[in-house]
Design a protein that fits this description.
It is built from 15 helices and 21 strands. It is of the alpha+beta class and 621 residues long. The relative contact order is 0.10.
Length: 621
């Protein structure tokens, strides 16, 4: 979790002083402020630990020079905001950066073994050392969190003074001081010992503190702490059970990310001059009314021609599902994906647009008939694309990809009209599966049986995590979805060898529904690895056919076989079948579904039933 030594990013401690008085604590890359170290996450800097402050503080601190606004109207409308802002990018002369607060506050001294709040050690200003021993303090390794997104200090005092008979924590302090030491006998929690100088309680280990009901048995429930908002933010009424976590655990913070591709007519920047007026323009249906509004606001000199404004309004309304008076978030997100799929199929030739066009998608020149035996069709070369990826919220203990709104923690205490986001510019390859062949394959009983096992396991996980049974999300597991997902993974692994990209620099974008069966694989990083220029060439039919054959043959064997292929369930919650880190799993930043719902048997078949594989004909011609 410790970020690399930095030259550009600065973070700061808690306080109300001017920006220039905040000391620099460390640095992270701009993209990490969305995906890894976003609002509410814990960040380790050297031997210290901090939590990234909420957007209420960022509203006052992020300057326009260091965190400029970006626009993606389709995504902004989906998330009900006006615009997005890049996390602050600064150099050594910059005044601003990400604001952070010290967390957890409980620290221990490895010399005197005291365990208490950081300020009680009387450290010198700007340093985290014991005022008596002058050695570096160690932040608490343990924190507690609940599924509503709250985060708090581990309750060391009740843990030490717990009553074995009553199973409850004491109601009064004993006046002693806590001590923490490590016996060194083992590397387990049994060797971490906590005691109190009061002498009324024996020295206890941390063993058992990670049990699901360990804190519930002490009579402790979540009181709604939100340390990323500061001491002034009132705690929320919660009452949910708390879980003990390692400070560096991935379950402490998971981002809820939503993204959209810039596609015509929004991809050439024409809408940006009207960014503050779309809410008003959307109220008008008639062309004359729109014209009157533009003349009134811009004194007759509209920055965007009237015809283009009407085209943009029409494109926006098309993303509202038919018959929906008030489209839900899920409906609008599906409509957003549908429009992307249609545009990727139709293309957008570069010769018909200016150099400012952000989306260029062209049909390859080669003979596409050589892809027919593979069941692959419609490859498109996406020579230019722009993706905006926004941080909508975050979760704790709950998988962000399968959460409900009730378990998403907002980034600020108050409603703000913007969200932090990243924009990625790069290239990609789009391909589809032949619908006729796919329909016939989906109906095979063996295929349906494997998918039903995965879907049942995934649905069970979703129901276990749901606080409201009436709002449980339906598992997206379908034969075409799992097939597309697994195919995208093996292609990314293949192209990481052929195209010169590391696998972590490529990303999948799946389009799976009754009327969609496509996948876009594109550069997913904003640094130099996203502009190598070798990915588009892989979409030419001759090269693509060779790549698909090679990827499928490589997926036929795994170094963990036969265990991998014959397993009844794998992965977290048993939602994968034949999939492991030795064959089809990817870096999590490359996968839309957190490496779940994968099964390479749907690509290549099994030793007992080869026909379950969609590409079995490649292996057994």
């Amino acid at each position: 979790m410790t970020p690399p030594p930095a030259r550009r990013r600065r973070t700061s401690t808690n306080g109300a002083a001017p920006a220039h008085s905040f000391p620099r604590r460390g640095a992270v890359r701009r993209a990490q402020a969305i995906t890894t170290y976003g609002v509410g996450s814990l960040i380790a800097v050297d031997h210290e630990s901090f939590i990234v402050s909420g957007l209420d503080e960022a509203e006052q601190s992020w300057s326009r020079d260091e965190s400029p606004r970006i626009h993606e109207r389709r995504l902004a409308r989906l998330l009900d905001v006006d615009y997005f802002r890049l996390p602050p990018a600064s150099d050594d002369t910059s005044r601003d950066g990400l604001r952070v607060r010290r967390f957890p506050l409980m620290h221990s001294c490895p010399e005197c073994n005291d365990l208490q709040r950081h300020r009680d050690f009387n450290p010198p200003t700007g340093r985290s050392v014991c005022g008596t021993c002058e050695v570096d303090l160690v932040p608490s390794r343990f924190v507690v969190a609940c599924e509503a997104g709250h985060l708090g200090e581990f309750p060391y005092w009740p843990w030490v003074h717990r009553s074995k008979e009553r199973g409850a924590s004491p109601t009064a302090q004993c006046g002693g001081k806590l001590k923490l030491r490590t016996s060194g006998h083992t590397a387990s929690l049994r060797s971490i010992l906590v005691s109190c100088t009061c002498g009324q309680a024996p020295e206890v280990s941390m063993e058992g503190s990670f049990r699901r009901n360990a804190l519930k048995d002490l009579g402790l429930k979540c009181r709604g702490p939100r340390p990323w908002l500061g001491a002034s933010a009132p705690a929320q009424e919660c009452g949910l059970p708390m879980r003990t976590l390692q400070r560096g655990s991935s379950a402490v913070w998971q981002p809820v990310l939503k993204s959209a591709l810039s596609i015509p007519p929004w991809s050439d920047g024409r809408a940006d001059p009207l960014a503050e007026h779309w809410d008003a323009l959307r109220e008008y249906d008639e062309r004359d009314h729109v014209e009157i509004y533009l003349k009134g606001v811009f004194k007759g000199n509209s920055p965007v021609p009237l015809d283009e404004v009407m085209a943009l309004l029409d494109a926006e309304r098309e993303e509202d599902p038919d018959g929906e008076v008030a489209p839900t978030f899920d409906h609008r997100y599906r409509a957003l994906r549908n429009k992307e799929y249609e545009r990727l199929r139709a293309g957008n030739d570069e010769s018909e647009h200016t150099r400012d066009e952000q989306f260029v998608c062209e049909t390859p020149l080669g003979d596409q008939s050589m892809l027919d035996p593979l069941g692959v069709t419609g490859p498109m070369l996406v020579k230019k694309l722009r993706e905006v990826r926004a941080l909508k919220a975050f979760t704790r203990l709950v998988d962000a990809d399968s959460t409900t709104d009730t378990k998403e923690m907002p980034l600020s205490e108050h409603t703000l009209r913007w969200l932090p986001a990243m924009e990625v510019r790069g290239e990609g390859v789009f391909l589809r599966l032949d619908e006729d062949r796919l329909d016939a394959w989906e109906k095979a009983p063996a295929v349906a049986a494997r998918i039903e096992r995965m879907r049942t396991a995934h649905q069970r996980v979703l129901e276990q995590r749901a606080d409201d049974p009436s709002r449980v999300i339906t598992s997206p597991a379908t034969p075409r979805m799992v097939l597309l997902h697994t195919l995208a993974h093996v292609l990314i692994n293949e192209w990481s060898l052929e195209a010169g990209y590391p696998a972590a620099s490529l990303r999948e974008r799946l389009y799976s529904a009754d009327d969609m069966a496509g996948a876009l694989i594109y550069t997913a990083t904003s640094d130099s690895a996203g502009s190598l220029g070798g990915l588009v060439a892989q979409g030419e039919p001759e090269i693509l056919a060779r790549t698909v054959r090679s990827a499928v043959r490589r997926a036929e064997w795994c170094s963990s076989d036969p265990l991998c292929m014959e397993t009844e369930a794998s992965g977290a919650g048993g939602v994968n079948l034949a999939a492991c880190h030795a064959c089809v799993m990817l870096p999590e930043t490359s996968c839309e579904h957190n490496n779940i719902l994968l099964d390479r048997a749907l690509l290549v078949g099994t030793p007992y039933d080869p026909e379950v594989g969609f590409f079995a004909g490649i292996l057994n011609p």
